[in-house]
Amino acid sequence: MKDAIIFLHGIVGNHSVFAKEMDVLKKDYYCTSYDFYPLKNVNLDDSFSLQVFVEQLYTHYIQMNIKKAHLCALSFGCLIALSFVQKYPHMVASLTFIGGYCCNVPSVYHTNLLQLMNRRRQLSYNEWLKECVRALNPNRKEILEDSEAIFLESARLLQPSLFERIVRINLGVNSEFVLREVNVPILWIMGEYDELYKGTLGNLKQYVPHVQYREIKRAGHVAHIHQHLQFMLIFKRFLRQQSLEKISLNPSF
After folding, report:
1. By three-state DSSP, how is residue 33 classified?
2. Average pLDDT for residues 79-86, to the nearest whole number?
3. Each residue of 128-152: b (16+ CB within 10 Å) or e?
4. pLDDT at residue number 145
5. Residue 218: its pLDDT value, please?
6. Confidence at residue 253, expressed as pLDDT on a 0 to 100 scale
7. Sequence-distant (≥ 6) Cβ neighbours of residue 117 within 8 angstroms
8. How many CA atoms lie within 13 A of 89 on its CB side?
9. Going by C-beta distance under 8 Å and a sequence separation of 6 or more, which residues neighbour residue 189?
10. 168 to each of 10, 46, 132, how far by Cα in Å?
11. What does residue 251 show for φ and ψ, rounded to 5 degrees?
12. Is 31 helix (H, G, I), strand (E, B) or coil?
């Protein structure tokens, strides 16, 4: 039976963000992804939390008849994967984070989030959304794409109250606490030019000493898209490593 990989997209976007990777890996792995939105039967009030997404991921496991999977996540999807393994560790074989970040640590990212939430009631939603796009843009000018325009177009597809709640969720996550509890193998991939989010990772090795951190040259926040071949080389090597370790632990497997 093939090992399963579940791919999780970021705060905006959809399942197609990993289409190319899934096409390459489908011969050797059972690959699946899904869209977080629209969330059904969810109240977008002050009780809305990351656990809504965690339970949605659990439901995806059940629907796809997956007992255990490698989770490969982009950006905000990393927070979902991290919270999932905290609650359901027996269902996660490994974690691969692309453009992952730590919440509630001293950083420009955290400062920007606080300022955005303080500004929310002073601006119309469209004005505030544009400020979000500027403040959360991770890429340097070396990335030849209009990151802000791409983010803005995708964010406008989300219900305003939903997008605001998701941005606020980041302020409620204690990354240090959660990471210290994680025992599964972790591959953490960042793009060379993803400066905003790399700025949150100063103590990453302290939180999770067994993490495998890799930085991809000439890539930004979506490093797997900017440098697909480099990413796949690293990712497939990591997956093979997990398979070999599983065999060594279960020689009769």
Report:
1. strand
2. 97
3. bbebbbebbbbbeeebeeebeeebb
4. 73
5. 92
6. 45
7. 167, 168, 171
8. 9
9. 96, 97, 98, 99, 214, 215, 216, 223, 224, 231, 234, 235
10. 15, 10, 12
11. -60, -20
12. strand
Contact 92, 122 (CB under 8 A): no
Q: What φ, ψ does residue 45 adopt, rounded to 5°?
A: -115, -165
Q: What is the rounded average pLDDT of the residues 193-210?
A: 95
Range list of H helices, 124-193: 125-135, 147-155, 160-169, 175-181
Secondary element (H or E) of residue 53: helix 50-63
Q: Per-residue pLDDT for 68 more than 50?
A: yes
Question: Which residue has 């730590």 as its token pair?
Answer: 102
d(CA 95, CA 8): 11
pLDDT band at 147 (very low <50, low <70, confident <90, very high): confident
Given a cut of 90, whether residue 48 has pLDDT beyond it is no
Alpha-carbon span 97 to 213, nearest angstrom: 10
SS (H, E, C) 68-122: CEEEEEECHHHHHHHHHHHHCHHHEEEEEEECCCCCCCCCHHHHHHHHHHHHHHH
DSSP 181-226: H--S-EEEEEETTBHHHHTT-TTHHHH-TT-EEEEETT--SSHHHH
